[in-house]
Amino acid sequence: EQGWRSGESARHPPMCPEFDSRTRRHKWIEFVGSLYSAPRGFSPVLRWHRNRAASPSVPTPHSRDPPRRTPPKAAASEVRAGAEARNLAVGDREVVEVGSAMFSIHQAADDEKANIILRAELVEQKKGVCRDVIREFEKTEHELEANITTAKRKVTQAVEQMMTKLKELEHEAVTALEKARVSRIEKLNSGKASVVSIEKQLDQALEFSNNLVERSSSSVVMQNKKNVEERIEDLMKTTMPVLPVNSFVEFVSTCEPESLSLGFTKFSKTDVQGSTVEGLVKNFRFGVETELLIRPKTSEGEIRNTRHTDRIEVHIEPADQVTSLVTSEREDGGFQTKFVAKVPGTYEMELKINEQKLAKSPFSIFLKSREFDVIGKLDSHGEMLQGPAGIAVNSKGVTAVAVVDGHCIMVFDDTGKFVLTLGVYGDKVGQFDNPTDVTFVNDDEILVADECNHRIQRFNIQTGKCVESFGKEGSGDGKLKFPTGVCITSDGRFIVVVDDGNSRIQVFTMDGQPVLKFGDGGPERLDQPLGCVCYEDKFIVTDRKNDCVKVFDEEGQFLYKFGEKGNGDGQLAQPYGLCTDKDGNVLVCDMLNNRIQMFSLEGKFIRKTSTDLKIQFPWGVTTTPDGQILVTDYNGLEVYTLK
């Protein structure tokens, strides 16, 4: 601009000659415009100049007129963004016009190239996203094919397993029918043979009678008359065997083909790691039903609320200390697991959903012990319980109590009310001298350990009479010395006697013949045993002086022992009477610790009486048909009911 005003010969704006090989001429690219900044918000218009006959404000290469001054405009770098471009022909020169400002096309193109490169990079990134999505589709397709193949294989396996099980059931059913056929045919043949024998005897009698009448003389007839009459009379009295079995046999199918199901197919995945277990924070106690709720969740973290979409497996250790483990599906799609623990302690629970472990599985569950409480006592109706010791209950709930200092047996009905007394002091049959224990042979008869008379007596509680007695003082086989306990073997075939004075156990037949003795020798010999109970094929004995309980097999061989001297849980101090409950747990009178303790059959401590319960001298213990526990308190002169 200064050059133009001073009239210099070069009156034209700076030009950049560019040779055009096509037209054999130079193109000129001019920058026309102000160098001042454009007002903020100014939106320029780009125009490409190609035609020489365009705007007169743009001088040609041969014009001597200076260009018109233009008002200040924005710098190219500030106004180019968002501008609209168009071409203007100015001979063979090219410029970029931004509003009234013009720029070099190369400069504008360089800026646009950068923008295009940025956008191309975005396109490349989008392309990468597309490739990732395509790979995800392909991966899902591959997994779908694999899962469908696996599912088909499992369907086939399920059918094969079902067929195998059906074959097993078929074999069992057919075998059972064949056994029934053989058994019934044998009974029919046996009955038939009996009838055939009777028929043969009748034929013989008939033939003899006919021969006697037709061929014998009168004297012979008279001689055999009585024999014939008696024989025929006997035959006529013969009872015909009744039909031992009938012919009716029918198989009733419980299988419903319409409801038969191999399983189910899932098309959405359960999030095993996100699934939860509710109820773990509760205070659990052994012997009481424990309940947990398993909540399967979807991969989106929502609780699955549809049924028949998951399979639950529950394993609890130690498994042999758990009963009634049941898992059921709820209407809301959750699963409820219930079980009862036999003993207190820590249990490990492993949970699986569709064969996969839950997060943090296995879980540790601690079940606390419970104490026995007194809920009542027997009503003696004013009769003095002078030193109650052994105690027994029959299947009807009738209770018999051996009263040591009263030298008798007191009987209570099923409501706990006193009914009658059996025996008095003495050494004659039916009399007692320190009866220490009692057990029921059946609902009407009892056996009594008559300690100081060195014998066992059998009484009928309905008549009050002694029906049998065996045993004499001594140390030989079958001899007794201060017997303190008596019970019946589990099969009801033998009488077991605690021979305290001889520190042994003796086993007798039901009529008092000795068949076995044990405990008086070996490293685990007994030292003044007091109580014994039979459970299944085991003898369980309280070894009083050794402060423990010892277990022997049916042959009298020592198996194991539990308990030791002390006053802690599971420790004993001169144990007396004992019994087992319906679950096989062992209840022991811990005499010097003034309590009752419960152990598992293996000897693990389970529970004890409350410390608030002041039993002065627990001697005998038994269970009732409804599951309650009766305990005799020798010094307290009471019989308590525990629960």
From TrEMBL:
<dbReference type="GO" id="GO:0008270">
    <property type="term" value="F:zinc ion binding"/>
</dbReference>
<feature type="coiled-coil region">
    <location>
        <begin position="134"/>
        <end position="179"/>
    </location>
</feature>
<dbReference type="GO" id="GO:0000209">
    <property type="term" value="P:protein polyubiquitination"/>
</dbReference>
<dbReference type="InterPro" id="IPR001258">
    <property type="entry name" value="NHL_repeat"/>
</dbReference>
<dbReference type="Pfam" id="PF00630">
    <property type="entry name" value="Filamin"/>
</dbReference>
<keyword id="KW-0175">Coiled coil</keyword>
<dbReference type="Pfam" id="PF17170">
    <property type="entry name" value="DUF5128"/>
</dbReference>
<keyword id="KW-0479">Metal-binding</keyword>
<feature type="repeat" description="Filamin">
    <location>
        <begin position="268"/>
        <end position="367"/>
    </location>
</feature>
<dbReference type="Pfam" id="PF01436">
    <property type="entry name" value="NHL"/>
</dbReference>
<protein>
    <submittedName>
        <fullName>E3 ubiquitin-protein ligase TRIM71</fullName>
    </submittedName>
</protein>
<dbReference type="InterPro" id="IPR011042">
    <property type="entry name" value="6-blade_b-propeller_TolB-like"/>
</dbReference>
<dbReference type="GO" id="GO:0043161">
    <property type="term" value="P:proteasome-mediated ubiquitin-dependent protein catabolic process"/>
</dbReference>
<keyword id="KW-0862">Zinc</keyword>
<dbReference type="InterPro" id="IPR013783">
    <property type="entry name" value="Ig-like_fold"/>
</dbReference>
<dbReference type="InterPro" id="IPR014756">
    <property type="entry name" value="Ig_E-set"/>
</dbReference>
<dbReference type="InterPro" id="IPR050952">
    <property type="entry name" value="TRIM-NHL_E3_ligases"/>
</dbReference>
<feature type="repeat" description="NHL">
    <location>
        <begin position="559"/>
        <end position="602"/>
    </location>
</feature>
<dbReference type="GO" id="GO:0061630">
    <property type="term" value="F:ubiquitin protein ligase activity"/>
</dbReference>
<feature type="region of interest" description="Disordered">
    <location>
        <begin position="53"/>
        <end position="79"/>
    </location>
</feature>
<dbReference type="InterPro" id="IPR001298">
    <property type="entry name" value="Filamin/ABP280_rpt"/>
</dbReference>
<feature type="repeat" description="NHL">
    <location>
        <begin position="419"/>
        <end position="462"/>
    </location>
</feature>
<keyword id="KW-0677">Repeat</keyword>
<dbReference type="InterPro" id="IPR017868">
    <property type="entry name" value="Filamin/ABP280_repeat-like"/>
</dbReference>
<keyword id="KW-0863">Zinc-finger</keyword>
<feature type="repeat" description="NHL">
    <location>
        <begin position="467"/>
        <end position="511"/>
    </location>
</feature>
